[in-house]
Design brief:
single chain, alpha/beta, TIM Barrel, 2 domains, eight-stranded parallel barrel, binds 3-methyl-2-oxobutanoic acid
């Protein structure tokens, strides 16, 4: 039986009832596997830039790259709520430009929602995109696109002022119409307080167990991204070593002339001498 695609109101209704799962996907193959594993929502994160495209940060990621990959995920996972992550400077220039870029995720890639990083500074544009008919996911705490401004990839909300600011931002984004909120790298007690204070679900990544749901970068969860492993990541597999070992075995088998043997070859029923004689 096919999964029933959840809608943003379904996700909101899950708050307090059932934990919500979200994972990143960047291509059709992973979209297919994650959908069949029953993940509630897929995010085509701009982590694409670092995990798949080899950039050093998410800043260089373009709309064209995001649309290209989001369309592929949609083809692999037609029955899962799909969120497109708006890349840096695709929503800051003007509300009109942000609506047009958000619209591309829906019209060209078949997404069901978009995600924007930021607090007070994106409440207005969040409202504008929601009013244009497109569901929005907020994202506060550590916001990688503007990590420089936050002093690097650091835990946010550790002191009273910044924790209170996060709470006000969460309420502001709820008020602006976001249907759920990613809380990245904030102390679990702060995430719990925010989760209890708003009516939309919180999705933690380094936000502790009290969030309404959890998101991870799939390549981190599977042990496929070895450049760095954030301390909040639980690795459920170590695929990078497995992939390297499998490829080294293939390499050796070919060099040694033992692959392909008869099992992996097509045998000829006719006599080659007969076929090729002049
Ligand atoms: O880009 C991304 O993968 C994200 C998640 C880490 C939430 O924004």
């Amino acid at each position: 039986m096919q999964n029933m695609k959840l809608t943003p109101p379904d996700i909101v209704a899950m708050k307090g009832d059932e934990k919500i799962t979200m994972l990143t996907a960047y291509d059709a193959a992973f979209g297919r596997m994650l959908e069949s594993a029953g993940v509630d929502m897929l995010l085509v994160g701009d982590s694409l830039g670092m995990v798949v495209l080899g950039y050093d940060s998410t800043v260089p990621v373009t709309m064209a790259e995001m649309i290209h990959h989001a369309s592929a995920v949609r083809r692999g996972a037609p029955n899962t709520l799909l969120i497109g992550d708006m890349p840096f400077l695709s929503y800051q220039v003007s509300n009109a430009n942000a609506i047009a870029n958000a619209g591309r995720f829906f019209k060209e890639a078949g997404c069901d929602a978009v995600k924007l990083e930021g607090g007070f500074e994106v409440c207005g544009v969040t409202r504008a995109i929601v009013d244009a008919g497109m569901p929005v996911v907020g994202h506060i705490g550590l916001t990688p696109q503007t990590a420089g401004k936050l002093g690097g990839l650091k835990v946010q909300g550790k002191d009273a002022d910044s924790a209170r600011r996060l709470l006000r931002e969460a309420k502001g984004l709820e008020e602006a119409g976001a249907f759920c909120l990613v809380l990245e790298c904030i102390p679990d007690g702060v995430a719990q307080y925010i989760t209890d204070a708003i009516s939309i679900p919180t999705i933690g990544i380094g936000g502790g167990v009290h969030c309404d749901g959890q998101v991870l970068v799939t390549h981190d969860l599977l042990g496929m991204f070895e450049k760095f492993i954030p301390s909040f990541v639980k690795q459920y597999a170590s695929l990078a070593p497995d992939i390297k070992n499998a490829v080294a075995d293939f390499n050796k088998d070919v060099k040694d002339g033992v692959f392909p043997d008869a099992t992996y070859s097509f045998s000829l029923k006719l006599d080659p001498e007969e076929i090729f004689k002049e």
